[in-house]
Predict the 3D structure of the following.
Amino acid sequence: MKMVKSLLLGGAAGLLAVAGAQAADLPVKAKPVQYVKICSLYGAGFYYMPGTDTCLKVGGWVRAEYIYGGNGNLAWGWANGNVNNRTTNNSTFRARGYITADAREQTEYGTLRSYLAVGVNTNDVGANTASNTFSANRAFIQFAGFTAGIAQSFYDFYSVPASSFWGAFPASDTGDPGWMVMAYTAQFGNGLSASISAEERRDTTIVSAATAFTAATAGAGVATTNSQGGFQSPDLVGNLRLDQAWGSAQVMAAAHEVNGTYYTAAPTANGPSDKWGYVVGAGLKLNAPMIGPGDYFQAQVNYTNGAPRYVFMTPNSNWFKATGANFGFGMLADSVYAGGTQGSSQDLTTAWGFNAAYDHSWNHQWKTSLYGGYAAVSYNATANGVLCTGEVGATGTCNNDWSTYWIGSRTQWNVTKNLYVGVDVMYSKLKSATATTVGGVAYGNDVDNVGVRFRVHRDFYP
């Protein structure tokens, strides 16, 4: 009996020794996993970054399009040096996709936010060489009322992409490309706010000489000598805005420095004095749920002297389209001055424009918009004389004032809440500047264009 008890005790002691040795060899117990937690402070899609108080939302969108009548250039469009012959790219494919990241956290000064949108933006006109493959249209920080980085101009109000697939008509909207800003916004309560902003300058060209019209000019559009000086001062922008349940309204203004280079081709100490152009505008948005769910009307008007890119954000250069042996054209410049040894002061260009759109929802899946606008450019007698001397000679006559109008409609089917398919048809008219006939070519005929744009778009937490 004693022998059996000794054997049992010895065996138990051996097992305990082995178990102890094995336990000593085991790794240290892992720390509990920090599971991702939903952050409900800023809406759907936000999660706490593990170990921090920062909430992050990652999203994006993908888009595919086919365009007819866009002249192979969707940022500019149908009147961008359009020779309208067998070399013209009437068809264009486009694919775009962006990844977005929105990071926010609470501080004693309010919400700290940083936002980034990067992706691809490719156009192809049948050459199998897609262009503009990388794009970044947002990279900004917001904190205590300040906004700094690539955001959107604080002058803007009317939203082009809200009512149209097209971006190739005059408007002030910088939303698609983004714009460099350093701004402060003060909130006064009850939806009233005011912003001041120093922004990347919006310039077109400064014309010191216009190329004489020849039959060959039709192949390159209207040529001018760009005498735009270097970037010296940001544009100064301010707005006063009201947001209410019925909609929103805004008045805004901006100052834009216009600085030329030299009077002669070889840089000398002589050049025109700098001038400051300006622009003023007003915008209105009215919600109309009594007509349809999500219905609204939006409009904006702008008037400028010396800052026409606030009317012509895109396109923002000379207009031109050929129609057989004739063509229509329009010069777009911040200012005009005479070069050479007898230089003149700058004469600022006057322009104004109007945008309006109505969006109607037929039901939760179908909606249609109707949009249109008008824009005009005019030069005083001195500036027109400088341009005409270059275009048709000292003895010729011409008128460089011109205008354009457009009307279009977009219909969109929301297949799901994140996927839509749509078609946008737009008619545009260029009321041409007038010049003369050179070599059988009539310079200054009104021209028009019809464009069709088909789109498939999918969002994922935009």
